[in-house]
Design goal:
Largest sheet: 6 strands, mixed
CATH architecture of the largest domain: 2-Layer Sandwich
Helix content: 25-40%
CATH class of the largest domain: Alpha Beta
Low-confidence stretches: 1-18
Distance between the termini: 18 Å
Structural class: alpha+beta
Number of strands: 10
Number of domains: 2
Strand content: 25-35%
CATH topology of the largest domain: 60s Ribosomal Protein L30, Chain: A
Number of helices: 7
Mean pLDDT: 89
Radius of gyration: 17 Å
Shape: globular
Length: 225
Amino acid sequence: MSDRSSIFDMIGPIMIGPSSSHTAGVVRIGRVARMLFGPQPSDAEITFYNSFARTYEGHGSDRAVIAGILDMSTDDERIREALSVAEMAGLKFNFKAVNNASALHPNSVRIRLSSPQKSLSMLGISRGGGLISILEIDDYRCNFTAQDHTLVVTAEDVKGSIAFISTIVSNDHCNIATMTVDRRAKNQTAKLVIEMDSELRPLTLEYIRSQTWIHQVDYLHLVSI
């Protein structure tokens, strides 16, 4: 988890209440899931854990996470009506609560999105003040905050792959802030997550995607989360 701090850390985002942890942070978690998924999903299953499991309805976390999945920002007035908006948009959703998940942060939420073409599972935590951390994507471990430009690469676990991608990012004059790597098993697939201080050019992303051993490339823009 990043220890970097900023004015944002102290005052939090502009948001719809009642709570930065239960509303702003949860909206951002939902929005990251939507960005990684791509188009609007047809189904969403959301599991709240621990403190969230006990308070998500009263504090509006259910509306907040659906708002994020619908790609709403933290200050969108429609957050309060997000469940109705989702129904009108054709998004089916259901909520689950797990009260005693001792291995997880008190404010944890898992989002599963699906459509006939694809699916996504993501685990995130709300740290307060609208700050979040994403800890898992499709059962790959990661740890990023969505406060920086973020590159997410799923690829074959080939020799030199991490060095190759790092070099491409560096050649685009992007400074790497954090990097996490997880893999299914040796010589199988791996997921690389890089947080950067500046934006990658579209041409650089196209070049990374063009490699035959790379399965998927997702890119989260700092300004859009």
